[in-house]
Amino acid sequence: MSKLWEVNTEFERICDSCEWDNDRKAWIDYETGEIMTDDEFWQNLQALNEEHDRIVEWCAKTYLDDNAKAEMIKAEVKRLQALQKYHERRAERMKGIVDRELDGKPRDFGFCKVSYRASKAVTWKDENEQKIIAWLLSNGHDECVKKTYEIRKTELGKLIDKGEQVTEWAQREERKSMSIK
């Protein structure tokens, strides 16, 4: 057996289906009809227990290994994101220099062409943003407003801890936190 559920199921099956027979001085498995001495019975349970422990130990080792790999990947992603930011900012700076120096005049460098086209942008002053949003919503232009709501669990937890009855749908829940190191 190599699957935890098989080990657990067999352990439970043996415990449920075996009984001690005083007349025979043996354990009888009523499901399979097997007759075992006391030593055989306990050796079977011990073997299942050892297999159980081996599998759980393997799971713990796999957790540590996978967690370490995930942390290494996370660090590599962070490093690559920083590198990406650096190159994006540098590219923007170079684009700004090209734009400033060409002053709106198209240019063919052979390996690339710089061109300009007319475009329109929507702009507003930051202090007017809430007024614009209110106007859009009150005049039925909901599609122009991006709505993103997210519950901040830490802040909601603080309200609940203060004893405030926030809502019937949110409450504190006791949990166990496990760590493997």
Topology:
Blueprint: H1 4-17, E1 18-21, E2 26-29, E3 35-36, H2 38-102, E4 107-108, E5 113-114, H3 129-138, H4 153-161
Query: What's the Cα radius of gyration?
Result: 34 Å
Globally, the shape reads elongated
State the helicity in percent bands. 40-55%
Q: How far do the termini sit from each other?
A: 28 Å
Strands, count: 5
**Which strand order does the major sheet show?**
1-2-3
Largest pleated sheet: 3 strands, antiparallel
Condensed summary:
By secondary structure, this protein is mainly α. It contains 4 helices and 5 strands; from the N terminus they run αβββαββαα. Helices cover 54% and strands 8% of the residues.
Descriptive notes:
The chain is mainly α. The chain has one domain (4-161). Helix content is 54%, strand content 8%. It is built from four helices and five strands; from the N terminus they run H-E-E-E-H-E-E-H-H. It has helices at residues 4-17, 38-102, 129-138, 153-161, and strands at 18-21, 26-29, 35-36, 107-108, 113-114. It has a three-stranded antiparallel sheet. A two-stranded antiparallel ribbon has the order 4-5. Strand 2 (26-29) and strand 3 form a beta hairpin. Helix 1 packs antiparallel against helix 2. It is elongated, with a radius of gyration of 34 Å. The two termini are 28 Å apart. The model has no long low-confidence stretch (mean pLDDT 87).
